[in-house]
Design a protein that fits this description.
With about 60 residues, the protein is an all-alpha fold. It has helices at about 5-20, 30-45, 50-64.
Amino acid sequence: MTLSTGERASLAHDLILSLEDPAAYELSPEQEAEIRRRVRRVKMGKAAGRPAAAVFADIEARLR
Protein backbone atom coordinates (compact mmCIF):
# COMPACT_ATOMS: atom_id res chain seq x y z
CA MET A 1 0.00 0.00 0.00
CA THR A 2 3.04 2.29 0.03
CA LEU A 3 3.09 2.40 -3.78
CA SER A 4 1.69 5.45 -5.54
CA THR A 5 -1.72 5.23 -7.17
CA GLY A 6 -0.13 4.92 -10.61
CA GLU A 7 2.25 2.18 -9.44
CA ARG A 8 -0.63 0.23 -7.87
CA ALA A 9 -2.70 0.58 -11.06
CA SER A 10 0.20 -0.67 -13.16
CA LEU A 11 0.76 -3.60 -10.82
CA ALA A 12 -2.96 -4.48 -10.86
CA HIS A 13 -2.97 -4.34 -14.66
CA ASP A 14 0.05 -6.65 -14.88
CA LEU A 15 -1.49 -9.08 -12.40
CA ILE A 16 -4.78 -9.22 -14.32
CA LEU A 17 -2.95 -9.87 -17.58
CA SER A 18 -1.00 -12.67 -15.90
CA LEU A 19 -4.28 -14.53 -15.37
CA GLU A 20 -5.01 -14.76 -19.07
CA ASP A 21 -3.31 -16.54 -21.95
CA PRO A 22 -0.26 -14.38 -22.84
CA ALA A 23 -0.70 -15.26 -26.54
CA ALA A 24 -4.00 -13.37 -26.46
CA TYR A 25 -2.04 -10.14 -25.97
CA GLU A 26 0.33 -10.32 -28.91
CA LEU A 27 0.71 -7.03 -30.75
CA SER A 28 0.68 -6.52 -34.48
CA PRO A 29 3.81 -5.16 -36.18
CA GLU A 30 1.98 -1.83 -36.54
CA GLN A 31 1.26 -1.69 -32.81
CA GLU A 32 4.88 -2.54 -31.97
CA ALA A 33 6.07 0.23 -34.32
CA GLU A 34 3.71 2.75 -32.70
CA ILE A 35 4.99 1.83 -29.23
CA ARG A 36 8.59 2.26 -30.38
CA ARG A 37 7.70 5.65 -31.92
CA ARG A 38 6.05 6.83 -28.70
CA VAL A 39 8.91 5.63 -26.50
CA ARG A 40 11.38 7.45 -28.75
CA ARG A 41 9.36 10.69 -28.43
CA VAL A 42 9.31 10.36 -24.64
CA LYS A 43 13.06 9.77 -24.50
CA MET A 44 13.66 12.79 -26.74
CA GLY A 45 11.48 14.97 -24.49
CA LYS A 46 8.96 15.63 -27.26
CA ALA A 47 5.96 13.88 -25.71
CA ALA A 48 3.40 15.72 -23.60
CA GLY A 49 1.70 13.66 -20.95
CA ARG A 50 -1.53 14.16 -19.07
CA PRO A 51 -2.41 13.20 -15.51
CA ALA A 52 -4.23 9.87 -15.35
CA ALA A 53 -7.08 11.49 -13.42
CA ALA A 54 -7.73 13.85 -16.34
CA VAL A 55 -7.69 11.01 -18.87
CA PHE A 56 -10.10 8.91 -16.79
CA ALA A 57 -12.38 11.92 -16.29
CA ASP A 58 -12.54 12.43 -20.06
CA ILE A 59 -13.37 8.75 -20.58
CA GLU A 60 -16.08 8.81 -17.93
CA ALA A 61 -17.61 11.95 -19.46
CA ARG A 62 -17.79 10.27 -22.87
CA LEU A 63 -19.48 7.19 -21.42
CA ARG A 64 -22.30 9.21 -19.85
